[in-house]
Amino acid sequence: MTGLTDDQIRQTYEAAKEMAAKDNKDITAAIVKKAAGKFKPAKPVGNAKSKAKKAIAGKSINLSPALKLLARAEEAAEKGSSKLVVKELVALRKCLEDLAAE
């Protein structure tokens, strides 16, 4: 659960308890890992970081800031904070517009 906030750890534990109880089992590391999975970003296919920096139309563009904003918007959506989601998406649009203008 490294990298999770205190709230995410609590939610993970509660989800793990429910998952174990549903199958009438004890909580195991595998169940906790599965429960914590919703808070971990999806593993990139291939090397996303290098792909984000690949040359596009002969121009090198660093998409890392945009990807970070997108991840923050996803986290806000998981928390149910629509205002924060909109704020992060507006920032993402601005970031992408800036990158397109370069």
In short:
The protein has 102 residues and is mostly helical.
What would your notes on this structure say?
The protein has 102 residues and is mostly helical. α4 runs antiparallel to α5. Helices cover 65% and strands 4% of the residues. The mean pLDDT is 79. The longest helix has 20 residues, at 82-101. The protein has helices spanning 6-22, 29-36, 48-52, 64-79, 82-101; strands spanning 55-56, 59-60. It folds into two domains: 1-40, no CATH class; 45-102. The chain has a two-stranded antiparallel sheet. The chain is built from five helices and two strands, in the order αααββαα.
Key structural traits:
elongated; 65% helix; 4% strand; 102 residues; mainly alpha
What is the helix fraction of residues, given as a range? Answer: 55-70%
How many individual helices? 5
The proportion of strand residues reads: under 5%
Quick check: average pLDDT?
79
User: What gyration radius follows from the Cα positions, in whole Å?
Assistant: 18 Å
What order do the strands of the largest sheet run in, or round the barrel if closed?
1-2
Give the uncertain stretches in residue-range form.
none
> What is the total tally of β strands?
2
| Backbone structural class | mainly alpha
Principal-axis shape equals: elongated
Number of domains: 2
**Amino-to-carboxy terminus distance:** 39 Å
Described by strand count, sense and barrel closure, the largest sheet is:
2 strands, antiparallel
Order of H and E elements = HHHEEHH
Q: Helix and strand layout, with pairings?
A:
Elements (H helix, E strand, L loop, with lengths): L5 H17 L6 H8 L11 H5 L2 E2 L2 E2 L3 H16 L2 H20 L1
Antiparallel strand pairs: 1-2
Helix pairs in contact: 1-2, 4-5
